[in-house]
Specification:
This protein has 462 residues and is an alpha+beta fold. It contains twelve helices and 16 strands. It is elongated and about 85 Å long.
């Protein structure tokens, strides 16, 4: 008989049918006549109750049925007389696939801290919290692909190994086949990368944007969705060494088009979560963030403010608020500044535009004032910046001059510059950190708790 997933069983409404369910034991209780086993298979938050008549299946056969054990149960699905559940399974046969010693099983007790669970990341998906987070993560990944597919975007696979540094940050993971204990050297004593696999220094990518632009300038509208890497020693609740990015790039989009897409995209994802992950969101709202659902609905109900960076600085300076990081024109805003604008001043999401060119990347289109670029950051409550993007510089001369002004090596991005020589076009794009989105949608406070296996300094165990 085919196994049925618990989520399917609870949705079907069928009763008085023979059934096979498989899953992991959450709890077992009972008396001398009957045992009750709460079984969960990960398909939804709810458990299904297995009722065991001890006259049919002796207690001796249930000794190994403890929290964490994995079972197959053959039986009959019937209406449940108990409150809070519509159906239950009357067990006729139980097979134990795997036992879990109650003396050593780490999840035997309830109420473990998130810090403790990070140390057993290989088991934490079995908890209610991380089951919910991972189901929401799946739903958001699906919704991202659906959104872009339904709007005529093409999914472009950009390289994970690259010879360029999109952000110019320098904090990248080197990829090499050289003997790192004794690499070949040039006459000047530098590492001779001409003998390396790719014949030049290469790294794990920090962004697929530059290659994504090439796709946009041929296919019109593309998006990337893949892992990116930064070797920053940032042990904070907002940083990971390996994380996922969604980066659409669109030909013929100017800054206003870019902002409209970003707002529509975010609202679509939030609505999708509310429509398709309600049970998990209600659990997260109850257990971790009492304002979660209210905050998600708040974003949907409000148009995003468009705010010039210069005006934003004036608002912050006139606020009377003593910030930890003082702000003046030309500074890069901190999370406290971003959240003040969103949560206290405007009381709705903000898209901050036209940043000073000195604090933004080389590829952003310069405004006519010569001081600012057509950048945009989408700022959300609780999170701060959730999206960063810009209209890209389409003029070959201006882009080349900016590369030289910053002391970059033209040879590192010659192919990128060449796209402005032949058929250049206005184009724009943005990047959404997938884990930042999940922090907002799940209400979790630490980015390590919205990715299955977090990669952070000194942490690559599983």
């Amino acid at each position: 008989m085919k196994t049925q997933r618990i989520a399917e069983i609870l949705k079907s409404g069928a009763v008085n049918t023979d059934i096979v369910v498989k899953g992991w034991v959450r709890t077992k209780r009972g008396n001398k006549n009957v045992a009750f086993i709460a079984l969960n298979d990960g398909s939804c938050m709810a458990n299904i109750q297995i009722v065991v008549d001890l006259a049919v299946i002796p207690e001796e056969q249930l000794k190994a049925v403890t929290t964490g054990a994995c079972l197959r149960v053959d039986g009959k699905l019937v209406e449940s007389p108990a409150s809070g559940q519509g159906v239950e399974v009357q067990a006729e046969k139980i097979e134990i696939y795997g036992t879990a010693d109650p003396e050593t099983y780490p999840l035997q007790k309830k109420g473990h801290s998130l810090e403790f669970l990070r140390d057993i990341a290989y088991l934490r998906p079995r908890t209610n919290t991380f089951g919910a987070v991972l189901r929401i993560r799946h739903a958001m990944a699906y919704a991202i692909h659906k959104y872009f597919n339904d709007r005529g975007f093409y999914y472009l696979h950009t390289p994970l190994i690259t010879g360029s540094d999109c952000e110019g940050a320098g904090a990248m993971f080197n990829v090499t086949t050289l003997d790192i204990s004794n690499p070949p050297r040039t006459e000047e004593g530098k590492v001779d990368y001409s003998q390396d696999f790719f014949g030049k220094p290469c790294n794990l990518t920090v962004s697929g944007q530059l290659e994504g632009e090439l796709g946009a300038l041929s296919l019109g509208q593309i998006y990337t969705f893949g892992p990116t890497f930064r070797a920053e020693h940032s042990n904070t609740p907002r940083h990971l060494a390996e994380f996922w990015m969604i980066e659409p790039e669109m030909a013929f989009y100017e800054l206003e088009d870019n902002m409209e897409l970003a707002e529509d995209f975010l609202k679509y994802l939030i609505q999708y979560a509310l429509d398709n992950c309600r049970e998990d969101l209600e659990f997260m709202n109850k257990m971790w963030d009492k304002e979660l659902i209210e905050r998600l609905e708040f974003v949907l109900k409000n148009d995003f403010v468009r705010l010039d960076y210069t005006e934003g600085i004036e608002i912050l300076k006139a606020s009377g608020r003593k910030f930890e990081f003082p702000c003046e024109w030309g500074c890069d805003l901190q999370s406290e500044h971003e959240r003040y604008l969103v949560e206290e001043h405007f009381k709705r999401p903000v898209i901050l535009i036209n940043y000073p060119k000195e604090i933004k990347a080389f590829y952003m289109k310069q405004n006519e004032d010569g001081k600012t670029v057509r950048a945009m950051d989408v700022l959300f409550p609780k999170i701060g910046e959730i999206i960063g993007g810009s209209e890209r510089e389409a003029d070959y001369g201006k882009l080349t001059a900016r590369v030289n002004e910053l002391g970059m090596n033209e040879q590192d991005v010659w192919w990128y510059l060449d796209t402005r020589r032949w058929g250049s076009a206005p184009h724009s794009g943005f990047g959404l950190g997938f884990e930042r989105l999940l922090l907002f949608v799940t209400g979790m406070a630490n980015i390590r708790d919205v990715i299955p296996f977090p990669r952070t300094p000194n942490n690559a165990e599983f």
